[in-house]
Structure formats: C-alpha cells, structure tokens
C-alpha cells in the first residue's frame, strides 16, 4: 500500500494480537459482496415490481407513478450529494469512516422498505397516492444514508487497482445474487394467477427485508477500512472548489454520463419487462427465467474480467461489450414475431455484452476518485462517489418518469383484461429499440470521451504515488 496505516482510521477489530492489521483478502471481498447483496434485495424488488404494484394493486395511473419516480429520484440525487459531503466532514471513528453509517442506518432503511408494500384495502385514490409518495421518498432518502458510505469505502479497503477490481467484481456478484433470487422467486410470490397480489408483495418485502438487514450486518463485520489516505494539510474542502475540480475531471464526467444512461436503461428494462411478459407474451413466469439468465451471463463474464482487463484494459473490454449489447437489442426490435423462448435466447447475448460494464463500473469509479485526487491534491471519496451516485439517481429519475409516461402514451390500460395491439407493439418497442439505442450511446461515450485507457491508468498510479510521497 502506498500509505502508512493510521490505527485511528481503521476498524480496531481488524488488528491482530501482535498489533498488525489484517491484510486485504477474501474476507473483505465477501464483506463487500454482502453490502450490495443487501442493497439490491430491495433495490431490484423496487425497480422490477413497484410500478406494477402501484398500478395494479393501488390502482394508480402510470402517469402519476412516473411523476412520483421522477420527483423521488431527483430528491434522492440531492440527498446523495448532501450525505456524501456530510460524511467527508466527519472525523473517522475507531471502526472507520464509512462503516459505522452502514451499521446505524440499515435497520431504518429496511423498515421503510417494508412500509412501501403495505396495502390498506378500501382507501381512497388520494390516500394511496399520498401514502405511495411519502413511503417511497422516505425509502429513497434512507437508501442514500447506507449506499453512499458503502460505495465510498471501497477506496479505503484497498488502494491497489487489481484488488479494487476484485472488490468491483465481488460487489457485482452480490448484486447479481440478489437479482437472481428476486427475479427467480419474486414473480412466483407477487403474482397469483398472472395478477398482482397485495399479500404476496408484502410477504416478498418482509422476506427480502430480513435478508437485506442480515447482509448489511455481514458487510459491517467482514469489511475493514485499512487505508489511511493522505491528510489534506489543513485544507478544508470547499464545495465551490470541488465542483470546479469535478467539472475538469474528464474521466468522471464521461463515466457519469455513461452510468446515468446505463442506469436509465436498466430501470426501464426492469419496469417494462414486467409488462412485456405479462401482456405481450402472457407469461409472467418467464420473468423468473429471464432473471436467472441475466444473472448467469454476469457470472459467466466475471472469471473473464480479470485476465481480459489485465491484457487489454477496462475501457477496451467495456466498449466491445456495449457494442454487442446494442446490436442485439436493435436486432430484436426488427424481429417482433419471435417466440418467447427465441426472444429470451437472443436477449441473453445482449445481457452478456453489457455484463462487462455492469461488472467493472465500480472499478471505474475508484479510478476517477484517484484522478480527482491527482487534480486537486485533496481526498474526497464520499463527495466524489456521491456525485457519481447523483448521476445514477438522475438516470433512475428519467427512467421512472419516462417509463411511466411511455407506458401511458402507448395506450396501456390496467383495467383492461387484454391490451390493444398498439399498446402491445409499444411495449415491445420499449423493451428492445430503446435499450439498444442507449447501449450504442454508451459505446460512443466510452470510446471518445473516457480517456483512462490501460496505458494512462498505469501512468496515473505512478503519478499519484509520487504526489502522495511529496505530501509527506
């Protein structure tokens, strides 16, 4: 490690009897994996099923849900930056800088998640709208208080680029494991006879809430913040200066843009796929198969990431994956008469393509945090990560808003037993050509605007080590 370790800034539970700190290893990887395992038990449940819960159980219009998602995500984006800035101004405790917040805020987060899926029969439409608004925004706000410290602490678990790539990979494994469970089991719980069931949704929320809390506690127990970053030499981070530096951070701007629209596509697919398989293919059980295949493609990509990145670089491998995904989803748009099995088989190739971006994104984030330090000489992990999360929340806001309005615009009517052909064609277009176009845009962003290729990353590591050495 490039910095000496300060025992004031690490988890004292990681100190061996001889006074040394436990080296980075499998325990940290598993701990970090459990963190996103806990995050995504609820995040994926919400992104995949909350819209259909609101439209089919609460009876809310898709347009109202779109507005709610838009407002909530914009609020969450502000909450992310505020919380990240707050943490960066706090003095680390004996348990670390970020870990204590995961411990403190995870239980309130889980409770708020369960409350979202409580249905009180016989209430007015206005009551359901108000209840959805309050509980959803509360959940999103509390999510920031856990997710920002969780994402930020990767840079304090290790400062080695290869080990950080391992953390990113294990984080993705946690997310995909949660996705596998929710997408495989979730539809079987929340749908009864192909219809949304209020009791099933609440049962799913309670089950996944308990599992989420257990995962957060595992993350807290197993992870160690062991890296002491250089002091800022008495310089207090100034938000204005930070914003100017962020605007000069070209790798950050590029990855923010790519992440924003990637998240928009992920949220959109998650929401639209429910309608695609429920209405277009008339088979909600197939959602479980899609969820399993999506997770399997990631687990196939995971062992390929490290050797491919070592040989070619993160940027290079990601661009190939994104152009493959774009080509597949655009092709699907021009093949509307495929059977459900054929559709799933072809889309699996696209899932494999974007799995590389999904797997390596967190390693990209630690790279741009380091680049920010190189530009400014100040370490602001929480702030930089929160701005990255800000972009993802904007993507979620756009996806939620656009998704709700798009579903309404194509003529979807929750009261109809069978949707019109125009509505069915619109649902299919939303599930194919839209993500295809988004993946193509991401490809161009990474190729032309993200400068940290393999060669420049190697030089960044050298330059940053020299700059930290000179600050001593």
TrEMBL record:
Domain Major facilitator superfamily (MFS) profile per the UniProt entry, residue ranges: 251-472
InterPro entries: MFS_2, MFS_dom, MFS_trans_sf, Na/Gal_symport
UniProt xrefs under SUPFAM superfamilies: MFS general substrate transporter
CDD domains in UniProt: MFS_MelB_like
Keyword Transport: yes
Parts of the chain that traverse the membrane: 37-54, 60-81, 101-118, 130-150, 170-189, 201-219, 252-277, 283-305, 317-336, 342-365, 397-415, 427-452
Major place of residence: membrane
Keywords in alphabetical order: Membrane, Transmembrane, Transmembrane helix, Transport
Keyword Transmembrane helix: yes
Subcellular location(s) of the protein: Cell membrane
UniProt xrefs under Pfam families: MFS_2 (PF13347)
Membrane topology, as annotated: Multi-pass membrane protein
NCBIfam families according to UniProt: gph (TIGR00792)
Protein name (Swiss-Prot/TrEMBL): GPH family glycoside/pentoside/hexuronide:cation symporter
Protein source organism: Peribacillus huizhouensis
């Amino acid at each position: 490690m490039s910095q000496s370790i300060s025992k004031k800034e690490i988890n004292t539970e990681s100190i061996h009897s001889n006074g040394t700190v436990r080296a980075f290893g499998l325990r940290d990887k598993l701990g970090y994996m459990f963190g996103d395992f806990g995050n995504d038990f609820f995040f994926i449940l919400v992104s995949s099923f909350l819209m259909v819960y609101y439209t089919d159980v609460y009876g809310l219009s898709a347009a109202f849900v779109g507005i709610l998602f838009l407002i909530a995500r914009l609020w969450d984006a502000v909450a992310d930056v505020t919380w990240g800035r707050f943490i960066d101004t706090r003095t680390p405790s004996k348990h670390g800088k970020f870990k204590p917040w995961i411990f403190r805020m995870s239980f309130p987060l889980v409770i708020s998640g369960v409350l979202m899926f409580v249905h009180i029969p016989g209430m007015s439409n206005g009551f359901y709208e108000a209840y959805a608004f309050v509980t959803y925004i509360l959940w999103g706000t509390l999510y920031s208080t856990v997710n920002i410290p969780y994402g930020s602490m990767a840079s304090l678990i290790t400062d080695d680029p290869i080990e950080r790539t391992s953390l990113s990979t294990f984080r993705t494994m946690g997310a995909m494991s949660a996705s596998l469970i929710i997408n495989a089991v979730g539809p079987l719980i929340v749908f009864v006879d192909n219809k949304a069931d209020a009791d099933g949704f609440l049962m799913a929320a309670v089950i996944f809430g308990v599992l989420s809390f257990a995962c957060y506690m595992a993350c807290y127990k197993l992870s160690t913040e062991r890296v002491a970053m250089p002091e800022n030499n008495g310089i207090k981070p100034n938000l204005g200066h930070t914003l100017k530096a962020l605007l000069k951070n070209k790798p950050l701007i590029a990855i923010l843009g790519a992440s924003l629209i990637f998240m928009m596509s992920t949220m959109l697919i998650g929401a639209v796929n429910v309608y695609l398989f429920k209405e277009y293919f008339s088979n909600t059980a197939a959602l479980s198969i899609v969820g399993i295949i999506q997770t399997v493609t990631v687990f196939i990509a995971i062992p390929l990431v490290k050797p491919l990145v070592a040989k070619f670089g993160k940027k290079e491998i990601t661009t190939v994956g994104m152009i493959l995904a774009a080509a597949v989803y655009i092709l699907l748009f021009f093949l509307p008469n495929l059977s459900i099995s054929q559709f799933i088989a072809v889309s699996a190739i696209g899932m494999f393509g974007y799995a590389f971006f999904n797997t390596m994104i967190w390693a990209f984030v630690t790279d741009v945090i380091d680049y920010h330090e190189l530009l400014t000489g100040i370490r602001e992990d929480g702030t930089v990560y929160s701005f990255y999360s800000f972009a993802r929340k904007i993507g979620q806001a756009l996806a939620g808003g656009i998704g709700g309005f798009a579903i309404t615009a194509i003529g979807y009517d929750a009261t109809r037993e069978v949707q019109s052909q125009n509505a069915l064609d619109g649902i299919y277009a939303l599930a194919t050509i839209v993500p295809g176009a988004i993946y193509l845009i991401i490809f161009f962003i990474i190729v032309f605007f993200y400068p940290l290729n393999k060669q420049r990353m190697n030089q960044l590591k050298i330059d940053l080590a020299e700059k930290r050495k000179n600050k001593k």
